[in-house]
């Protein structure tokens, strides 16, 4: 039997939630970044899945968006990790709990 | 494209992702993240977007994973001290998953099978990139440059 | 998939010749399970490809290891290994046995998992990369659209593996070696990929088969249409070759495992069969890079002279491969090891601009009509940039003999 | 090749322009590169002018026109264009040749000036504008270039801006020429209104071709006179000649190039260019406009020659002679000898540039001294300068046979003599010839003969870079007469567009002897008067001019330029001064009051609103601010600074939204 769109959506939802888990439950900044990356990957999976299961248009829009979002994710990762390093330099920690200078 | 393949890949991918989210050692987490990315790429292959899959592997394993690893190295002193995970977050994540799944299964419009399509070749993607998506392409290029410079500036040793 | 691979680029008058012998052997093997469902055939054919690849390249690796030692011996004016077997040709077997029966030592404080996974991952990456190279007419193990990208995507995994090795074995030398290795690999991955761009641009495809097909034929009947015979092609080839040297950590760029500085780089803590695996991975990576170089610039399996076309294509391919490999060994026997800062400067200040210039030159070549005019124009472009760079970089200062500050 | 240059005629002015732009962008110290650039641009222009010269030789009366549309308003297009015909070509050759010599000369003369670079930028700029003026095929384009050369001359006269006299002279030149240009512009507009086009030649319906002229009709006279105003201003004719002598404040090469050879000749060129408008409806060669031209020219020639006698500044003498020569040309144009006038213009370009450069060399040698009474006996010290200067002087005073000036001047006398309207111009010109010889003799004697006086003690010959141009120009001044002689009037026929033929008989003419006699008389008179110049003679002190001794008040009258400047100062300038005063008074006492009144009203309003603010609005605002602060303190509690808290909140929100939509569906 051939899989329906639902299957992929569920999988990407799972991936997304796992990313969310990492973002919400881990204290280490890098874990948070990994989680964000995973959520982005899930989003890409969604794009591709929807593109694949939708009636075809001339330009593969979903693929395009996936490509762009991958590029943007790369940029995001680079800047984010640079931020982590900079933060570590200042506070000698990457624990996001301790980074609460903006507390009201 | 058969459900079996999908399920197999899912079985490979999701645990890896879970490990990436939960493992104590950052290094292991990163590597399992890489594995998860490979799984996602496999999904892309399965869905007929080979190019995107390759790009995903290329970018995430070749660049992002290595970057993360470097960061781990540079912030080493902080690694390993494990802290109590916050269970609220975990619960929330589970809740989101439940909600999403419920919503997906509830909507019948997505319970469709894939139509037969002609393979999206690199040539087609290239043409699309150079015609309809040329401005987005330029913008992304600009963005990447900006990110590069910004990252450099951020990690530059501030002189004092 | 097999049929598709057959009638892909089938040459009319060689279809029955010795040239296609392996293809037909594979077909014959597959005829046994015509009854089986499609996916079985697919898996079977893939397995056949895999085994063929492993067989060929592991043999080549064994041969290479001994030949390298012998050639180095010749260069350094001594006998190489000459005890085991005729001319010491069985030396690799002896080595293999030794490696197998050696004790496998894992440091106590090491991260066992990573320490164990690293060699496997690195070897896997290297072997995967071999899969997309066309070894002869209709002899591409895996014809996927965008094979070149696949090659690099897989190749980029190596860095992670190296890091795993360095980190996992929890040893400062390993860590340093891994750092050096990753640093130079990343730095040289850019020139490596960007020098491939012109070829991809000119051919208009990422598929190795098409790239090889695009280099068929001869101008004026005797000069083969290989890209290495165009100015941009030649430049790109040289850049690619050097980057390949760095990627496979060979002299003069073998700082990551420079014995005299850090014991053996990221392989310091490895022994026995894991070490052998690293060793093998390095060599196979070398084969992959050289094979890709031959495919991209040296016309793949095409014969250099039209009269010699009767010689089977795969023989030509392996001839080119071994020629390049010989150059590797030759360089190793000839050149001293460079310094890290020199490597980095070279990568970012020379290789990268030059490889971008190759792209531009290729574009010029194309728009000037791919003829003599294009040839001269692209030559002009490259010459200008080269001279400008060599003026800017002021090489006298950069590569001056080292000043030892602490040697009072 | 010839085809190419006809299509790319615009390159000739463009190259010096480009050169000047590049030079302007140079830093101040780069003397060498500036000079090289300027000279190179000039050489390029010379070569291209020569290329343009070749095709015009093939057919007599050759004319190539290349028009283009500048812009279109509504359905009407304003078109400009380039024109290549003998008149333009000879001007091109003369300008570029003389210009090159002067450029080279200036590299020596201006060496050590701190604004060297700027100087060459201006010079190239001028050359470009002048070349453009010569080849423009549209009165508007010509006018534009005309103003550009005006600007260049303004900049260059005031080049030594730190000298107040230079600044004043620059201003004077600019304003005086403006007066003329106003007339010119009006004429231009009138012409445009009349004939509907400003193109000279446009395939049959240009404004100088029968179609256009027919449209002008009777108004042609006024248009011609208005355009002539511009010519009067530019080439220093009688009412507006006052600026030219003062323009000598500029560096000598500038005087040579702009105020002797090229720019001031532009007026003559202009008249020659639009000659059809002047001569429209002429009855045997006489129209009212041409008559005006003649008499203006005569007046100028005679007056300037008289003034030149009493001047002491070496450059001023030359300036006045320039003015008188220009008058001569105007006369010749007026009486219908266009070719003769242009020929004299060219010849004059060469020898006057030569004279000025010679003067420059003298001044250079005497360390900046310009008063001829302080010089003397320089012929031993600066032989080359002396010889070339003598050649120039001979040419200027019109010694026949060997010097170009002689032939052209005879030609002019010849045509003037046959002017049907009146014979007086002829007689006046004869006097003018004598006077010319006289003042040139005076100058030569003062500068080069006699014993060395104050400034001449430490004089020295100039460097080769300055003498070489002198020699070149001298050779030009002599060889030029080959194409001028009546025996083979090549240039004349080239300009009039007929084929030249050789007739040695025509070499001997009555005017030849006449001018011989006249020039001889002039020399003799000069030598007799000034043989003792600058030395103690009878009871005359050494530093007084012999003429001054003989005829004090006459001399003073001439020395002060017939008090024309003073006249202007009393009348025109005084009037404008008065009007300025008047308007100033109006400003102070009337308009100011008004403005102040409005200000007062504004202030009153302001006071009112302030009170309203302080009483009413402020209180309410304060209350609001207090409330806001309290609210903010309340909300800031939510900002725990924990990213993950925020993220969780977002997640909860997203979840809620999702569930809501799912429930809706």
Describe the structure.
The complex is a heterotetramer of chains A (104), B (160), C (408) and D (665). Chain B has helices spanning 3-22, 26-46, 50-74, 87-106, 122-130, 134-155. Chain B is an all-alpha fold and 160 residues long. Chain B has two domains: 1-107, Four Helix Bundle (Hemerythrin (Met), subunit A), CATH 1.20.120; 119-160. In chain B, helix 1 (3-22) packs antiparallel against helix 2 and helix 2 runs antiparallel to helix 3 (50-74). The model of chain B has no long low-confidence stretch (mean pLDDT 82). With 408 residues, chain C is mainly α. Chain C has two domains: 2-35, no CATH class; 106-392, no CATH class. The mean pLDDT of chain D is 85. Classes of the chains: A mainly alpha (104), B mainly alpha (160), C mainly alpha (408), D mainly alpha (665). The A-D interface holds A 20, 23-24, 32, 96-97, 99-104 and D 635-644, 647-648, 651.
Most extensive chain-chain interface: A-B, 73 and 85 residues
Largest sheet of chain D: 2 strands, antiparallel
| Shape verdict of chain B | globular
Mean pLDDT of chain B: 82
Lateral strand order in the biggest sheet of chain D: 1-2
- Secondary-structure-based class of chain B equals mainly alpha
Quaternary structure state of the chains depicted: heterotetramer
> How many structural domains can be distinguished in the coordinates of chain B?
2
Per DSSP, what share of the residues of chain D sits in E-state strands of 2 or more residues? under 5%
What's this entry about, in short?
The complex is a heterotetramer of chains A (104), B (160), C (408) and D (665). Chain C contains 15 helices and two strands.
């Amino acid at each position: 039997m051939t899989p329906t769109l639902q299957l992929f959506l569920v999988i990407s939802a799972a991936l997304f939630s796992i990313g969310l888990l990492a973002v919400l439950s881990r204290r280490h900044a890098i874990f948070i970044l990994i989680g964000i990356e995973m959520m982005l990957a899930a989003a890409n999976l969604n794009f591709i899945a929807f593109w694949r299961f939708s009636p075809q248009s001339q330009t593969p829009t979903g693929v395009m968006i996936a490509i762009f979002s991958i590029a943007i994710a790369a940029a995001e990762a680079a800047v984010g990790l640079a931020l982590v390093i900079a933060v570590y330099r200042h506070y000698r920690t990457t624990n996001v709990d301790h980074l609460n200078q903006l507390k009201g | 494209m058969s459900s079996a393949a999908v399920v197999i890949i899912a079985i490979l991918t999701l645990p890896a992702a879970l490990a990436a989210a939960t493992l104590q050692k950052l290094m292991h987490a990163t590597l399992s993240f890489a594995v998860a990315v490979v799984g996602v790429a496999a999904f892309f292959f399965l869905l007929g977007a080979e190019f995107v899959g390759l790009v995903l592997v290329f970018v995430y394993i070749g660049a992002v994973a290595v970057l993360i690893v470097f960061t781990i190295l540079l912030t080493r002193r902080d690694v390993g001290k494990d802290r109590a995970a916050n269970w609220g977050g975990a619960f929330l994540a589970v809740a989101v998953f439940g909600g999403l799944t419920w919503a997906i299964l509830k909507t019948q419009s997505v319970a469709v099978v894939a139509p037969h399509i002609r393979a999206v070749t690199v040539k087609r993607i290239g043409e699309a990139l150079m015609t309809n998506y040329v401005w987005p392409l330029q913008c992304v290029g600009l963005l990447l440059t900006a990110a590069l410079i910004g990252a450099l500036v951020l990690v530059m040793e501030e002189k004092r | 998939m097999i049929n598709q691979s057959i009638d892909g680029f089938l040459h009319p008058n060689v279809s029955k010749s010795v040239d296609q012998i392996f293809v037909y052997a594979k077909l014959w093997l597959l005829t046994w399970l015509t009854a089986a469902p499609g996916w079985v055939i697919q898996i079977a054919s893939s397995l056949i490809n895999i085994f063929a690849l492993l067989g060929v390249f592991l043999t080549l690796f064994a041969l290479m290891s001994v030949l390298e030692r012998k050639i180095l011996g010749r260069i350094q004016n001594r006998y190489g290994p000459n005890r085991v077997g005729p001319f010491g040709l069985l030396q690799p077997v002896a080595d293999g046995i030794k490696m197998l029966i050696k004790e496998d030592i894992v440091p106590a404080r090491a991260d066992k998992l990573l320490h164990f996974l690293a060699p496997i991952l690195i070897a896997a990456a290297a072997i995967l990369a071999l899969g997309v190279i066309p070894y002869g007419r209709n002899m591409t193990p895996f014809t996927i659209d965008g094979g070149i990208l696949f090659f690099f995507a897989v190749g980029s995994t190596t860095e992670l593996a190296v890091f795993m090795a360095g980190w996992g074995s929890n040893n400062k030398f390993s860590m340093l070696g891994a750092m050096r290795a990753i640093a130079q690999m990343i730095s040289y991955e850019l020139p490596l990929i960007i020098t491939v761009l012109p070829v991809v641009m000119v051919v208009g495809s990422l598929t190795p088969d098409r790239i090889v097909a695009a280099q068929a034929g001869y101008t004026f009947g005797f000069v083969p249409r290989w890209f290495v015979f165009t100015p941009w092609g030649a430049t790109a080839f040289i850049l690619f070759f050097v980057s390949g040297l760095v990627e496979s950590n060979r002299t003069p760029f073998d700082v990551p495992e420079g014995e005299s500085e850090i014991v053996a780089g990221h392989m310091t803590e490895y022994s026995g069969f894991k070490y052998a695996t690293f060793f093998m991975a390095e060599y196979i990576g070398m084969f992959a890079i050289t094979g890709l170089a031959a495919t991209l610039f040296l016309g793949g399996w095409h014969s250099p002279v039209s009269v010699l076309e009767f010689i089977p294509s795969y023989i030509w391919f392996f001839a080119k491969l071994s020629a390049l490999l010989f150059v590797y060994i030759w360089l190793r026997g000839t050149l001293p090891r460079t310094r890290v800062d020199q490597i980095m400067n070279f990568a970012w200040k020379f290789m990268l601009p030059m490889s971008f210039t190759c792209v531009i030159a290729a574009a010029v070549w194309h728009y000037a009509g791919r003829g003599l005019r294009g040839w001269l124009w692209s030559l002009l472009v490259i010459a200008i940039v080269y001279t400008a760079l060599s003026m800017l970089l002021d090489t006298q200062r950069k590569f001056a003999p080292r000043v030892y500050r602490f040697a009072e | 090749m010839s085809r190419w240059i006809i299509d790319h005629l615009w390159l000739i002015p463009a190259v010096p322009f480009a050169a000047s732009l590049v030079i302007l962008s140079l830093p101040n110290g780069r003397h060498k590169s500036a000079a090289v650039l300027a000279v190179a641009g000039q050489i390029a222009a010379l070569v291209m002018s020569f290329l343009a010269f070749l095709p015009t030789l093939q057919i007599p009366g050759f004319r190539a026109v290349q028009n283009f549309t500048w812009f279109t308003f509504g359905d009407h297009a304003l078109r400009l264009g380039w024109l290549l015909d003998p008149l333009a070509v000879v001007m091109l050759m003369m300008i570029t040749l003389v210009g090159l010599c002067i450029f080279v000369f200036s590299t020596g003369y201006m060496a050590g000036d701190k604004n060297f670079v700027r100087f060459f930028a201006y010079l190239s700029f001028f050359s470009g504008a002048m070349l453009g003026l010569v080849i423009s095929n549209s009165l508007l384009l010509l006018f534009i270039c005309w103003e550009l050369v005006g600007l260049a001359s303004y900049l260059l006269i005031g080049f030594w801006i730190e000298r107040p006299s230079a600044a004043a002279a620059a201003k004077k030149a600019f304003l005086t020429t403006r007066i003329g240009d106003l007339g010119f512009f009006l004429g231009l507009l009138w012409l445009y209104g009349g004939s509907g086009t400003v193109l000279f030649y446009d395939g049959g319906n240009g404004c100088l071709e029968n179609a256009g002229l027919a449209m002008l009709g009777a108004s042609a006279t006024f248009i011609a006179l208005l355009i002539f105003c511009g010519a009067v201003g530019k080439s220093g004719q009688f009412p507006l000649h006052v600026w030219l002598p003062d323009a000598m404040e500029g560096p000598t090469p500038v005087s040579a190039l702009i105020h002797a050879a090229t720019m001031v000749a532009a007026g003559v060129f202009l008249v020659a260019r639009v000659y059809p408008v002047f001569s429209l409806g002429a009855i045997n060669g006489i129209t009212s406009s041409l008559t005006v031209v003649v008499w203006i020219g005569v007046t100028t020639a005679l007056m300037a020659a008289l003034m030149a006698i009493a001047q002491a500044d070496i450059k001023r003498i030359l300036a006045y002679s320039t003015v008188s020569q220009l008058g001569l040309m105007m006369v010749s144009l007026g009486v219908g000898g266009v070719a003769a006038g242009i020929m004299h213009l060219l010849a004059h370009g060469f020898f006057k540039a030569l004279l000025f450069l010679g003067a420059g060399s003298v001044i250079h040698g005497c360390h900046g001294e310009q008063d001829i009474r302080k010089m003397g006996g320089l012929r031993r010290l600066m032989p080359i300068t002396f010889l070339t200067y003598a050649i120039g002087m001979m040419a200027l005073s019109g010694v026949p046979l060997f010097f170009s000036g002689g032939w052209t001047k005879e030609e002019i006398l010849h045509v003037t003599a046959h002017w049907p309207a009146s014979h007086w111009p002829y007689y006046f010109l004869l006097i003018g010839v004598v006077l010319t010889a006289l003042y040139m003799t005076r100058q030569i004697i003062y500068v080069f003969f006699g014993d060395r006086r104050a400034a001449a003690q430490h004089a020295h010959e100039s460097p080769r870079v300055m003498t070489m141009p002198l020699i070149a120009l001298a050779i030009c001044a002599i060889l030029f007469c080959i194409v001028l002689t009546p025996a083979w009037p090549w240039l004349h026929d080239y300009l009039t567009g007929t084929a030249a033929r050789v007739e040695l008989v025509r070499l001997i003419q009555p005017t030849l002897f006449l001018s011989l006699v006249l020039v001889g008389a002039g020399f003799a008179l000069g030598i007799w008067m000034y043989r003792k110049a600058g030395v103690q003679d009878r009871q005359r002190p050494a530093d007084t001019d012999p003429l001054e001794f003989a005829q004090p008040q006459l001399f003073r009258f001439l020395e002060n330029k017939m008090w024309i400047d003073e006249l202007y100062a009393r009348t025109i300038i005084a009037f404008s001064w008065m009007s300025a005063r008047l308007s100033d008074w109006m400003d102070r006492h009337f308009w100011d009051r008004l403005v102040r009144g409005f200000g007062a009203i504004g202030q009153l309003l302001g006071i009112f609103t302030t009170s309203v603010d302080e009483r009413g609005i402020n209180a309410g605002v304060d209350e609001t601010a207090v409330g806001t602060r309290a609210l903010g303190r309340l909300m800031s509690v939510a900002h725990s600074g924990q990213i993950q808290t925020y993220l969780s909140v977002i997640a909860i929100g997203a979840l809620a939204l999702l569930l809501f939509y799912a429930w809706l569906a």
